[in-house]
Amino acid sequence: MTAPSTHPATERGNQQRSMVSDTTTDPKSPHPIDRVVIRFAGDSGDGMQLAGDRFTTTSALLGNDLATFPDFPAEIRAPAGTLAGVSAFQVHISDHDISTPGDSPNVLVAMNPAALRANIDSLPGGATVIVNVDAFEERNLAKAGYEADPLGDGSLSAYTVYEVPMTSITTEVSKDAGVKPRDAERSKNFFALGLISWLYTRPIEATIGWIGEKYAGKPLVMEANLRAFKAGYHFGETAELFESSYEVKPAVLAPGEYVNITGNTATAWGLIAASTRSGLPLFLGTYPITPASDILHELSKHKQFGVRTFQAEDEISGIGAALGAAFGGALGVTTTSGPGIDLKSETMGLAISLELPLLIIDIQRGGPSTGLPTKTEQADLLHAMYGRHGEAPLPIVAAKTPSHCFEATMEAVRLAVKFRTPVMLLSDGYLANGTEPWRLPDLDDLPAIDPSFATETNHTDSDGQEVFWPYIRDEETLARPWAPPGVPGLEHRIGGLEKADGSGNVAYDGPNHERMTRLRAAKIAGIARDIPPTEVDDEDGAEVLVIGWGSTYGAIAAGVQRVRARGHRVAQAHLVHLNPFPADLGAVLGRYKRVLVPEVNLGQLSRLLRAEYLVDTVSFTQVQGIPFRAAAMEAAIIHQIEGMTDIATDTPGDLLAVVPGGAPTTPTRPSGNANGAVGGSGTGKATATGEPNRTGDGHARPTANPTPPTGKVSE
Fold first, then answer.
1. Please, is 528 exposed, middle or buried when counting C-beta atoms within 10 Å of its C-beta (0-12, 13-18, 19+)?
2. Main-chain phi, psi angles of 50, to 5 degrees
């Protein structure tokens, strides 16, 4: 398709600027659609995270089901206009239940050439591309690596492209507001937000109120943002560029009050709830690290609940303070990510020796070393299991969705308090920053957590004196008494040296050390009797079980749903308790001919299952800093159902084939296209819609007779 020599949207935009006002016209009836995936992309300073978050919040207020995936660089501010500095926010909204932020965007909002180039390969053919045409200047094109303007060379013919002069309209509408043009230009993200709000029939009142409240102390900034937002909305109404607007109806949700929540916020609220339900004052001792810092930020807002936050000078001091708080009778918590877990390991061993409740929250990110600070990964499982010297087991709990972080946090606290042990809670960057609707629970309906502090002596010594022995254990749980300092008669020593069974005195003899080692291990192993059995979503006749942990839950659920829609039978299980495993897990695994284990690592859970249960698992892995796509999961499951022993991911870049046990083989590229995304909407310079044919060079080609999909599409 040959592009016109001028940008039609630019011409229309010039004609329409005088029509921008604060009043709305009667819009055409929006076209109903069941779901849409939108990605906002621009420089890391363009406010894409803010625009995406506001669109998400508005959609949550409308009652849509949704899932999000923020994706941003590690640099505070990479060079403007470069690929390294591209920041993106993807949101999936739906009128039915969904579990992922979507495989591929149906709509890409690209604020500059770098944003377009960094994201265009993620789009299916027929997707909608809305570009800020003002940014497509020779200098910006060169920085993005374009030799020719993609808006004019036909390279985007597989997509529906709209060229909108966002920067120039944004600066023009603020001319008489006393805002400098350079400052006004920064509001172009609100123009994009306004335009997408019109295109998908989002109400604007809540966002207008939010802008007024957030920027109340900066009246010029507030005015520029308000004008840009309204200009974007009215441009959509009046420019006659789009054939129609679209509407995603509210999803059918259980009655209740809902909030749109991130995983880190859910974790922080879970800590507050656990503190309230246990009666323990909450103490967070931590050191800032991406992507865990938001838990500290959120908790610091809630001192009215008795929360105490301590930002230490380093990771070791943070966990040391948290352990000290636990000794003092508080709910001691520390948060970190992979590099911080390395540093905290020695104190974790001390906590295991002291047998005190302590919660260590690991928000996993790409590693090793500094690795990929803002990208997601699940590669700390083996470290959580074995990353301490000596025989030093501890329970491990893993969250599976952003909202589930609340429940997982409360469960981790329950285990820590009941069994007097440090507990590792695993989340990751995808869960931490992703969002979904969550129904607020009634606090009184949450399970109570009983700290059962020691209040009296528990042993008679050889002289007939009533004394307190800190290592006399509960017969059922093998937990020792928790006796904070200050209770007369319960004074006792703590420290890292081995303790004598019962008395807690320092003991160097071998038989006692073996007894204490076995007691500590038995206590952790016994937790299996206190956790629920494996929950299996099974269909009669299924021979393949897909079992995962952590943030793979959404992609696995979506993949299983797709496979079942194709008439196949497959079972699904997801582990929340990773140490110990549920007591019935071995029997569950033994019921299936094939066990597929998807992970965002190189097969760590698969190795644990093979070692523990001698099951010939098949590991399906990727480590690219992004979550699995549902299409890749679907393809992997189908491979197993068809009896194949090797599988391959369907993710950007080279594709990694994996064999049983997780050993990588030569990269392979499967044929065909398993994209499965909904086609774009509207009309523009490019009109191809529907699924592309994938050629050997990886580029999309429009189908001969493209047809937009209709009806409800499985996620």
1. middle
2. -65, -45
Dist CA 639 CA 646 (whole Å):
8
Token pair listed for 705: 């007779």
CB-hemisphere CA count at 13 Å for 242?
Answer: 26
CA R_g for the chain: 28
pLDDT reported for residue 687: 29
Average pLDDT, the chain: 88
- 572 and 546 Cβ atoms separated by less than 8 Å: yes
Looking at residue 158, what DSSP letter applies? T
**CA–CA separation, 446 vs 609, rounded Å?**
32
CA 344 vs. chain centroid, Å, equals 24
User: What integer pLDDT is reported at residue 697 of this predicted model?
Assistant: 31
The answer to whether 534 and 609 are in contact (CB under 8 A) is: no
Residue 96: CB atoms within 10 A of its CB come to 16
* Cis before 422 (ω within 30): no
Three-state helix/strand/coil letters over 383-417? HHHHCCCCCCCCCEEECCCCCHHHHHHHHHHHHHH
d(CA 647, CA 632): 10
Residues whose CB is less than 8 angstroms from the CB of residue 164 and which lie 6 or more positions away in sequence, other chains included = 9, 13, 130, 131, 132, 133, 195, 235, 239, 241
Q: How many CA atoms lie within 13 A of 381 on its CB side?
A: 27
Of 229, 250, 235, 242, residue with least CA distance to 28: 242
Q: Using an 8 Å Cβ cutoff, are 166 and 196 in contact?
A: no
Calpha distance 259→499 (Å, rounded): 48
Q: Is residue 44 within 8 Å of residue 86, measured between CB atoms?
A: yes
pLDDT at residue 704 in the model: 30
What is the end-to-end Cα distance of the chain in Å, rounded?
31
How far, in Å, CA of 377 to CA of 365, rounded?
5
Q: What is the pLDDT of residue 311?
A: 98
What pLDDT shows up at residue 76? Answer: 78
Are 132 and 167 in contact by the 8 Å Cβ rule? The answer is yes
pLDDT at res. 77: 76
Could you tell me what percent of the chain has a pLDDT over 70? 86
CB-CB contact of 285 with 310 (8 Å) = yes
CA of 289: how far to CAs of 282, 311, 316, 374, 420, in Å?
Answer: 20, 11, 13, 10, 27
H/E segment holding residue 36: strand 35-43
Kindly give the residue spans of alpha helices, DSSP state H, lying in 392-509: 404-419, 429-433
Question: How far is residue 384 from each of residues 227, 319, 523, 603, measured CA to CA in Å?
Answer: 50, 15, 17, 15
Residue among 94, 172, 86, 95 at smallest CA distance from 121: 86
- Helices 315-327 and 338-354 cross at an angle (nearest 10°) of 30
Give the β-pairing of 282-286 and 459-460: unpaired
The pLDDT value recorded for residue 692 is: 31
Low-confidence residues of the chain: pLDDT under 70: 1-28, 644-715
| Cα 288 to Cα 307, 393, 527, distances in angstroms | 17, 26, 32
CB 225 within 8 A of CB 189: no
Tokens, residue 567? 């008439």
- Report how far residue 28's alpha carbon sits from residue 12's, in angstroms, rounded to the nearest whole number: 19
> Residue 708, preceding bond cis, omega within 30 degrees?
no
Residues 6+ apart with CB under 8 A from 641: 543, 544, 563, 568, 570
